[in-house]
């Protein structure tokens, strides 16, 4: 008779949970009272005034549960983007939706594919579902369609694609994304994470709605965080009916609070503010890239609201970070979290912030 195995003396997480490297956000404090945070890709112009008013108005109804499906927000998104509100699911930030998608479509023995320098939340949600993440090498910090397709196996269930990508700022064209999708089996879910779509100026870019509309295995995920509502935590996704149904079955019943729903709806409709934010970003993204692209720094062309600056080596990057830090300019180190130790990610801020960054780094050797 086999002796029973010893039981653990405390609750034990599922296999693999302890192997997950927790998400580490960018630093948010620096010496001096007037430090400037350029580490989290937040809006340099604040939030839409209409969204702020809507958020404040919600204070009169804090005793009431929010409508469970975020209907007011879904209707606003449908109106602005020309989509069916029933194809939309809202979440507590886009990270909430990424986690839900992983829980729905990944399990023990499954694989999810992503590019090497893709968003660091993808490995977390994949491993949390018991699946394995497959990292695929890039070409000059850009996702490689052929390499992604070559990494697909019979175990692949999801392909994660941030477009534009964080932290590199690079993107795949509409034609490249369509080619990626065409090469996938019909049972593989392509998740197009368009978190930075509001800032793209490239004419050959698509947010992914075209593929969602005519495919049974594509979803597009978006966020309000980069357009001034990071504190409100609002994400949304568009997908085919069967994916929407699956996600709605496991999401929290009130996963988007009422102030966030109302603020998000107002922000979505405030197209003029979104355009002003995009114009500001394009101006100062191009300016900082031109200022910093020198013989000892390389700025990777970006379509997001940040730039990735590459230095000769990790030591130079660390010294550059410290020089900025001492001036109260907080940028993002991307060595530990993204495996690019020679790089810094710098959010596009106000004109004065961008000029201050350029002044420090141009004098830095």
From TrEMBL:
Pathway: Amino-acid biosynthesis; L-histidine biosynthesis; L-histidine from 5-phospho-alpha-D-ribose 1-diphosphate: step 7/9
Transferase in keyword set: yes
Chain ranges of the Aminotransferase class I/classII large domain: 35-361
Quaternary structure, from the entry: Homodimer.
Keywords for the protein's UniProt record, in alphabetical order: Amino-acid biosynthesis, Aminotransferase, Histidine biosynthesis, Pyridoxal phosphate, Transferase
An MF annotation (GO) of this entry: transaminase activity
Domain of life where this protein originates: Bacteria
Reaction equations catalysed: L-histidinol phosphate + 2-oxoglutarate = 3-(imidazol-4-yl)-2-oxopropyl phosphate + L-glutamate
EC class name: transferase
Keyword Transferase part of the UniProt annotation: yes
SUPFAM superfamilies with a match to the protein in the record: PLP-dependent transferases
Name of the protein in question: Histidinol-phosphate aminotransferase
């Amino acid at each position: 008779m086999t002796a029973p195995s010893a039981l653990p003396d405390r609750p034990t997480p599922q296999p693999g949970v302890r192997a997950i490297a927790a998400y580490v956000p960018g630093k948010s404090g620096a010496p001096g009272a007037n430090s400037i945070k350029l580490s989290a890709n937040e809006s340099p112009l604040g939030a839409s005034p209409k969204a702020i008013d809507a958020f404040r108005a919600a204070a009169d109804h804090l005793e009431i549960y929010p409508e469970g499906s975020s209907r007011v927000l879904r209707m606003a998104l449908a109106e602005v983007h020309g989509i069916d509100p029933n194809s939309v699911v809202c979440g507590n930030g886009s990270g909430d939706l990424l986690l839900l998608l992983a829980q729905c479509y990944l399990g023990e023995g499954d694989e999810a594919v992503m590019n090497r320098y893709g968003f660091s939340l993808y490995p977390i949600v994949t491993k949390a579902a018991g699946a394995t993440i497959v990292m695929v090498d890039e070409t000059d910090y850009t996702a490689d369609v052929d390499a992604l397709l070559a990494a697909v196996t019979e175990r692949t269930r999801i392909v994660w694609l941030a477009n534009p990508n964080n932290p590199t700022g690079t993107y795949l064209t509409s034609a490249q994304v369509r080619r990626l999708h065409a090469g996938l089996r019909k049972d593989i879910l392509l998740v197009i994470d368009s978190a930075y779509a509001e800032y793209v100026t490239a004419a050959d870019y698509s947010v992914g709605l075209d593929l969602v509309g005519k495919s049974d295995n594509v979803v597009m995920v978006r966020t309000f965080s980069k357009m001034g509502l990071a504190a409100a935590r609002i994400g949304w996704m568009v997908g085919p009916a069967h994916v929407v149904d699956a996600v709605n079955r496991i999401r929290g019943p009130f996963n988007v609070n009422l102030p966030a729903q109302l603020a998000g709806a107002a922000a979505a409709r405030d197209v003029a503010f979104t355009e002003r934010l995009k114009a500001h970003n394009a101006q100062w993204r191009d300016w900082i890239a031109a200022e910093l692209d020198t013989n000892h720094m390389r700025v990777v062309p970006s379509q997001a609201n940040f730039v990735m600056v590459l230095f000769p080596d990790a030591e130079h990057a660390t010294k550059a970070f410290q020089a900025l830090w001492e001036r109260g300019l907080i940028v993002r180190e991307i060595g530990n979290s993204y495996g690019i130790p020679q790089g810094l990610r710098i959010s596009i801020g106000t004109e004065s912030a961008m000029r201050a960054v350029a002044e420090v780094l141009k004098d830095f050797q």
